[in-house]
Amino acid sequence: MQNRTANANKEIKLLAVSILCAALLVLGHLLLAKSLAEQAWVEYTVAAIPFVLFAIGALAIRFAITAEHQD
């Protein structure tokens, strides 16, 4: 029973990560709206989003591998 709860907690964490990634993608598209695209900070923020997504993905894969080895 405890193993089942631990697996559910790990899946919930990975689900939260996927929701965060989706939110970053939506934010990037909203920031590129014509009303905001002229501002300098928007360009840097939108340019950083793919790198943040890559880092989150790499950490999620590492977390999943670690969780798999513990089971």
Automatic annotation (TrEMBL):
The keyword Membrane applies. Keywords: Membrane, Transmembrane, Transmembrane helix. The chain crosses the membrane at residues 47-65. It comes from the Bacteria. This is Asparaginyl-tRNA synthetase. It comes from Photobacterium chitinilyticum. The lineage of its organism: Bacteria, Pseudomonadati, Pseudomonadota, Gammaproteobacteria, Vibrionales.
